[in-house]
Amino acid sequence: KARELLDRQKEIDSNAVAYPDHIPLVPDEAKGATIRDVDGNVFLDFFAGIGVLNVGHANPYVMDAVHEQADKLVHTVDFPSEPRLDLIEKLEAIAPGGLAGNSKVVFGGPTGSDAIEAAIKLAKYNTGGSGLVAFRGSYHGATSGAMSITGKKDFKEPYAPLLPNVQFAPYPHPFEQGKTPERAVADSLREVRAIIEEPYGGMTNPAGIFVEPIQGEGGVVTPPEGFLSGLREIADDNDLPLVVDEIQAGLGRTGEWWASDHYDVTPDIVTTAKALGGVGFPLSATIYHEDLDTWGPGDHAGTYRGHVVAMRAGLRALEYVEEHDLLAHARRLGDDMRSRLRDVDAPAVGDVRGKGLFVGVEFVDGDGDPAPDAVKRVQEHCYENGVLVWKAGQHGNVLRLLPPLVLTDAQAEAGLDVLCDAIERVDV
Ligand code: PMP
Question: Any coiled-coil ranges, and where (predicted)?
Fold first, then answer.
């Protein structure tokens, strides 16, 4: 049955769909951290729809509210509803650092890219500038503004010209750069300063610094201490907003509500999406300091800014995370997983990193060069043995694990048995 549906999809769906041929999964039903495919095979899900299903597939606490809400009221644009107001209040309460209690929320639309577009507009609106500082290896989305600050050349090249006045600094990646963490951070911050502050060759009219607190698509690149706080300092020195893209890393994934919480940094603007819709409903938000709320009615628009079911689901999911202490669970289980992965005896494993249940394993060959085939083989072996794992990285050589935060210890162990075995088999 899976083959039949895959063939049908290939025939009629867009060529733009990037289907991983080596993981021919056709899901039929999913609960918690497991997926059953159309042929009845059951998989442990270490992917969670790109880190969307933090509280698990079809979480019953969320689904009860979803069914009730869907029968009552689905779409209101910007008219008030209790789910909308409750979610705004909740997001303002859990916002990172000093944003808590001093923030505003704008729902920009269903996708992460929408939240990024809103953040770009807000930064420009408040500074009157146009220049955007971003980072190599970043991913911020598929719309034109978001692509402009995405550091992946072949992804955006066919659509040039995108936004003008965007410059990229290196993201600190000590393993890949072969530098000490301190050196990697210092080199990156120096370039950011040069872009913003150099009188010649620098950027004219900067509007903001856009950064992922952990690069997700870029390979679960977890910056050393000093990077985000250094960016905070540069932003302050130059009166610029620091925009932190928490779309993949936020909402509990790393064992704190926000990845920036690990670094004690308060952003001016935060983007969130993915897990925000609770159990996979499309919903995004841009949270920002109330001082930046200078725009007026209609300055940012969108039809789907009030999806009541998604908002209700999102709120319930945040409640669920709190009530079940899933942040602490994610921290502990993530640390256990990383330590087990570090113990695997496999020369191809160059680096194991991440925070909470955001885990990356970087594969290299004997010369230390990226080994994307190793990741593919690990994915294949895992799939054949009932575990779904994903990849990331500029070179596709990073295995990325983003299991639901409700993953149990027993599920983690079973999944890692398969995964570690797969890694041991890899021969580069
Ligand atoms: N920012 C980050 C950090 C992301 O990981 C993604 C999606 N992978 C996006 C933005 C874009 O989100 P969406 O695909 O929902 O537009």
Answer: none
Per the structure, the complete domain to which residue 412 belongs is given by: 2-32+42-59+325-417
- Of 269, 303, 323, the last residue of a domain is 323
91 and 81: one domain? yes
Strands 387-388 and 42-45: parallel
Contact 283, 20 (CB under 8 A): no
Which residue minimizes the CA distance to atom 1 of ligand 1?
140
Q: How many domains does the chain have?
A: 2
Give the torsion through C-alpha atoms of 376, 379, 380, 385, to 10 deg.
160
Where does a domain end: 308, 323, 338? 323
The Cβ-side half-sphere exposure at 157, using a 13 Å CA radius, reads 4
Q: Is 246 in the pocket of ligand 1 (CB under 6 A)?
A: no
Do residues 136 and 49 share a domain?
no
Identify the pLDDT of residue 82.
97
Answer whether 253 contacts ligand 1 (Cβ < 6 A). no
| Residue to mutate (ligand 1; options 274, 358, 391, 402; most atoms within 8 A of CB) | 274
Distances (CA, A) of 419 to 44, 103, 171: 11, 42, 29
- Report pTM: 0.98
Q: How far is the CA of 139 from the centre of ligand 1 (A)?
A: 7
What CATH number does the domain containing 297 carry?
3.40.640.10
Q: Are residues 209 and 267 in the same domain?
A: yes
Within this chain, do residues 25 and 69 fall inside the same structural domain, yes or no?
Answer: no
**What is the Cα–Cα distance from 15 to 20, expressed in whole angstroms?**
13
CA of 45 to the centre of ligand 1 (A): 20
Distance 427 CA to ligand 1 centre (A): 33
pLDDT tens track for 369-402: 999 999 999 999 999 999 999 999 999 999 999 9
In short, whether 109's Cβ falls inside 6 Å of ligand 1 is no
Residue 337 CA to ligand 1 centre (angstroms): 25
In a domain, 234, yes or no: yes
Q: Both ends of the chain: CA-CA distance in Å? A: 34
Pocket-testing residue among 53, 210, 246, 247, ligand 1, by greatest number of atoms within 8 A of Cβ = 247
Task: Write down the ipTM of this complex.
Answer: 0.99
Say if residue 332 is in the same domain as residue 391: yes
95 and 200 share one domain? yes
In a domain, 345, yes or no: yes
pLDDT in tens, 184-230: 999 999 999 999 999 888 899 999 999 999 999 999 999 999 999 99
